Amino acid sequence: MTxxxxxxxxxxxxxxxxxxxxxxxxxxxxxxxxxxxEAATRDVPRKGMxxxxxxxxxxLDRYFGEWLYNGPQVPVLETLLGKKPEPTTASFFTKTDTAxxxxxxxxxxxxxxxxxxxxxTDVQNGCMQFLKGSHKRQAEFAHxxxxxxxxxxxxxxxxxxxxxxxxxxxxRPTTVHWSGPNHDGSARRGFNCFYTGKPVFKGxxxxxxxxxxxxxxxxxxxxxx
Length: 225
Prior knowledge:
The protein is of the alpha+beta class. The protein has a single domain (3-197), classed as q2cbj1_9rhob like domain (Jelly Rolls, Sandwich), CATH 2.60.120.620. The chain is 28% helix and 20% strand. The chain has helices at residues 3-16, 27-41, 57-60, 62-70, 73-81, 213-223, and strands spanning 18-21, 53-55, 87-93, 102-105, 112-117, 128-131, 158-161, 168-171, 177-179, 190-195.
């Protein structure tokens, strides 16, 4: 990314609270992420309203710890934020039917979120949607709740983030965002990294050795089954 491209991306991010970088990773990398996420979450219990969302991937497979802390998105986030991002967790999102829907909401916390598409995603199968610039008008949208329906289909700031495998969306948690139901039943999977709050580790670049204890225990358990 050139200096001019980086400046333009930051300007868009500051204005809209969301940007998309096309072909950020290859389709082969997207497939690897998807395969590792499906393997890591195969035995995770599914329950509750948002059972299609699995957080804490970095605790299940140190591969995702490396992505969260040292993935190619990290220097981009540093450019957008003007400082090194503070990792919190990595998540795997699936959406296979009309019951799996997250309604418009914003998260009342500072930070940044990345979402890599692992499948073709559009309005028909529940792509992410945003209200551009809403991160600057938090009080206006503070009443929104992820579990309560709100129709924003005609809002003038609506941005429907149709994406292909390997595209990445980067957005502020305070930007109003949601994803509708999957109407056509096609696969709609995504890999998320969340950055906010206090640093988990103090100083220095971390590697998988810092968080792989739980992952190794899980792998050992699988080897014994």
